[in-house]
Design brief:
The complex is a heterodimer of chains A (720) and B (76). Helix content of chain A is 40%, strand content 21%. With 720 residues, chain A is an alpha+beta fold. In chain A, the strands form six sheets. In chain A, strands 2-3-4-1-7-8 form a six-stranded mixed β-sheet, sandwiched between helices. Chain A has a six-stranded antiparallel barrel with strand order 9-10-13-12-11-14. In chain A, strands 17-18-19-20 form a four-stranded antiparallel β-sheet. In chain A, helix 16 runs antiparallel to helix 19 and helix 20 packs antiparallel against helix 21. The two termini of chain A are 60 Å apart. The relative contact order of chain B is 0.16. The chains are: A alpha+beta (720), B mainly alpha (76). At the A-B interface, helix 6 and strand 9 of A face helix 1 and helix 3 of B.
Chain lengths: 720, 76
């Protein structure tokens, strides 16, 4: 009997296991573990299917000729196994070897990585480099959920060829990002380093630069803001014992004299209802979730950063609970099986009533949004019940996706909005009220949407009501709001820079580099300096339009309208003169950067809370003799001996948050593989001393005990 | 030329302020017109004192306010 052997390449080990299980006749694939690399073997009729996985990208871009990590400019690049580029990826050597070994005796190759640019590229590079050029004959599975049904159907209807244009677009994106990132980042870091004032990684890139520019521009707007005064009129009326706030015809009055005139003319005046405007507003159901809308809703309701939402959504996708989350589509095609999904959801008690109501309708249609994505539909729940207990953040995101999905099929909401016009010649006031007459989709999307009805007094035209109170309020214009991770991601999306898969990561990098801080994002002086320098010497690099233009070119590669080599050649033509010009001013740039790097390092080690003993600055010091770090006082030379202990492991950051007990600045410790921990060094020491007192005294005084208990309750390291 | 407020190099030799302080200076001038309209009569020192106390006022604007209060002749 001729047995066919097939190798399927997936993107992650969890995905490989799901694919193998879905394709195995007994849903029980054999797992072999070669040097820690899981490979699954499924039996399907006369076919043996090996399913292996990547671990993200196994191959990456590196210089063809220059291997030095600080060398620049670099104009050539090639693809190499990641383990040959970075020490941290050493274990990938065994991973690639294991895939190569399986690939030797195989007849058929299939790429089953996520169907998007990155997934296509991951599969393409593995098939090309690890499977002896198998990319030319490989096939492609396409699926949007990891349910068994869809995986089996995707296997049967797989495309006979790889989506090479998508992979080439991805390849080009990586090469462009590498050429920009490596050259500019090495130049910034190198020029500052040559000043001999310490090392600091400074980076910029094709997407990082323009994103940082948004933040710095906003920072400048806020820092250069000059408020101007205006006045508003606050007035109330009473009717049947109830007080109602009424609005004045002009929202802002620019002059105090004018506002005073309004108040004096209307004090104790009788208002007459001269008009009643009433209309019914139809609130359309929300659109299905694309990734950025999900990220912004998750930020609004749970405070999750875009990167965290994406990570959670990916876990839910791998558990076959939702569809592929990296999508920009707001459309749900009928072939996903609306009714089946709703029937699946109806099996869960918390959604049973609403989901059954929708499932029992003869015809249902979602409110499709305008955004499209040729690769995947909008994010939707699969209707499957979780097979493991979800942690709270996962449960929250799943609940949000399920309720959004149901709401898109519901009827519009209807709201009666009424506006009463109340006159006191020559001024008009108004009173607004609204009443929800039909909940529609709001019922399905609770608690993420709510009914904000406002009652109105029962007044007819001609009715007269006295003003109960009227006063002017002095106000001032406010600076534009700071970006937060969610609004910055939206700004990137609007400007068409980065991709849905990379934007959240770019924002995280900008935080890591010390260019931005806090959730309401502040640009640091270092970021301002870098943007000033780039703006002065090479404005093209941080021009969002230029980056957006490159994104368009990559989309053209995907559509087969441009070639990868053509786009690379054009980009090099633009990048080369910029780099050469920057290199000629390297010394000047380095001096400016080094100065700000030193200042930032110094400020990052200094507390704004003064020394409790002598009011000098407190700073983080590393002992020359023991190598341990602690908080010391800069007034040491004047005799101050105030110190506080610090954790000895992890990266320390002084936060702007203060301890609720002692008002001292909190510190944050980041350790690899752990969530950041925030604590108060001062309370920690007080607690340690209280403990010692308790230990030494067999019958501690009640007061000491209560202090110790109070501190123990409030000051343990708080999870961020 | 160095910025009169922060001593940073100015973009053009004839500039008195760096780009940020220059922008803050322009905004401050425009704001004065609105403050004067709003309150009817307002002297420049009074304006600088009052706007300097507002929490909405930006950091660079505060620096230029401080500079102008110390060098009133620079308000032109």
């Amino acid at each position: 009997v001729d047995l066919i052997q097939t190798l399927i390449v997936c993107e992650k080990p969890d995905a490989a296991w799901r694919v193998a299980r879905a394709l195995d006749d007994d849903s029980d694939p054999r797992k072999t573990d070669t040097r820690g690399v899981p490979i699954y073997e499924s039996r399907r009729g006369k076919e043996t299917i090996f399913v292996c996985s990547a671990l993200g990208h196994l191959y990456a871009v590196d210089s063809k000729t220059h291997t030095g990590r600080r060398y620049y400019p670099v104009w050539d690049c090639t693809w190499k196994p990641k383990n040959a580029i970075e020490k941290e990826s050493a274990k990938l050597a065994g991973w690639i070897q294991a895939i190569s070994n399986v690939a030797r005796g195989v007849d058929r190759f299939i790429n089953a990585c996520d169907y998007d640019v990155e997934g296509s590229l991951i599969g393409y590079t593995i098939l090309r480099y690890a499977c002896n050029q198998a990319h030319s004959k490989a096939e492609r599975m396409k699926f949007s959920t990891m349910t068994e049904k869809e995986l089996q159907s995707s296997y049967k209807t797989r495309a006979p060829r790889l989506d090479v244009s998508q992979a080439l677009a991805g390849q080009c994106r990586h090469e462009l990002d590498w050429l920009y990132g490596i050259n500019l980042s090495r130049l910034l870091t190198g020029s500052a380093l040559k000043q001999n004032r310490g090392y600091s990684t400074l980076s910029t890139g094709r997407v990082q630069g323009p994103t940082l520019k948004f933040v710095v521009e906003r920072e400048e707007e806020i820092q250069c803001f000059a408020p101007t005064p205006f006045w508003t009129i606050d007035a109330t009326i009473t009717h049947n014992g109830q007080t109602f706030q009424i609005g004045f015809e002009r929202e802002k009055i620019p002059a105090l004299a004018e506002a005073r005139l309004v108040v004096s003319s209307c004090k104790s005046a009788i208002l007459e209802v001269v008009n009643i405007e009433s209309r019914t507003i139809r609130g359309a159901p929300p659109y299905p979730f694309d990734l950025s809308t999900l990220q912004s809703e998750a930020y609004r309701h749970f405070g999750f950063s875009p990167a965290r939402t994406l990570a959670i959504a990916e876990r839910l996708y791998l558990d076959a609970l939702i569809s592929y989350p990296r999508t920009s589509s707001q459309k749900l095609p009928p072939d996903i099986g609306y009714q089946d999904i709703l029937r699946g959801l109806a099996r869960r008690p918390q959604y049973a009533e609403l989901a059954s109501r929708l499932a029992n309708r003869t015809s249902i249609r979602p409110n499709q949004g305008p955004k499209q994505d040729s690769a995947h539909p909008a994010i939707y729940p699969t209707g499957e019940t979780p097979r493991r207990a979800l942690v709270q953040p996962e449960a929250n995101i799943l609940d949000l996706i399920i309720k959004r999905f149901m709401a898109t099929f519901a009827e519009p909401s209807l709201r009666d909005v009424t506006r009463l016009i109340l006159a006191k010649d020559p001024y008009n006031f108004f009173l607004k009220g609204s009443r929800l007459i039909e909940e529609g989709w709001i019922e399905y999307y609770r608690p993420y949407a709510s009914d904000d009805s406002q009652d109105l007094p029962n007044l007819k035209i001609g009715a007269k009501v006295p003003i109960k109170s009227i006063e002017l309020v002095e106000k001032f214009t406010e600076p534009p709001p700071r970006y937060n991770p969610s609004s910055l991601l939206h700004k990137m999306e609007d400007a068409n820079i980065g991709t849905k898969a990379t934007r959240a990561e770019v924002i995280e990098i900008l935080y890591r580099r010390g260019y931005m801080k806090e959730t309401r994002i502040r640009a640091t002086p270092l970021a301002q300096k870098i943007i000033t320098i780039l703006d002065r010497y090479c404005p093209l690099i941080i021009d969002p339009d230029f980056t957006a233009q490159l994104e368009n070119q990559m989309e053209k590669i995907q559509a087969g309208l441009e070639t990868r080599m053509g786009v690379l050649a054009q980009t090099l033509e633009q990048l080369r003169p910029v780099m050469l010009s920057l290199i000629s001013k390297e010394n000047e740039l380095g001096a400016q950067l080094a100065e700000i790097v030193v200042a930032q390092k110094k400020s990052s080690l200094t507390f704004s809370y003064p020394c409790p003993s002598c009011a000098s600055n407190l700073t983080i010091i590393r002992s020359r003799s023991s190598g341990k770090r602690f908080i010391g006082c800069t007034g040491f030379q004047n005799g101050c001996r105030f110190t506080l202990p610090l954790p000895q492991f992890g990266t320390l950051t002084i936060t702007q948050r203060t301890c609720k007990i002692c008002r001292f600045q909190l510190i944050m410790v980041r350790s690899k593989g752990r969530r950041p921990m925030i604590s108060c060094p001062r309370c920690y020491m007080t607690r340690s001393r209280s403990r010692q007192t308790v230990d030494n005294d067999p019958k501690p005084k009640q007061a000491t005990e209560s202090v110790a208990n109070n501190l123990l309750e409030v000051t343990p390291l708080v999870k961020n | 030329m160095k910025c009169l407020v922060c001593k940073e190099e100015t973009q053009k030799p004839q500039d008195r302020y760096c780009s940020e302080h220059g922008r803050a200076y322009e905004d401050l001038h425009q704001a004065f017109t609105k403050w004067a309209t709003g309150y009817g009569t307002l002297t420049i020192p009074e304006f600088l004192e009052r706007i300097g106390k507002r929490p909405e006022t930006g950091e660079k604007t505060r620096e230029i306010i401080q500079f102008l209060r110390e060098n009133p002749s620079r308000w032109t």
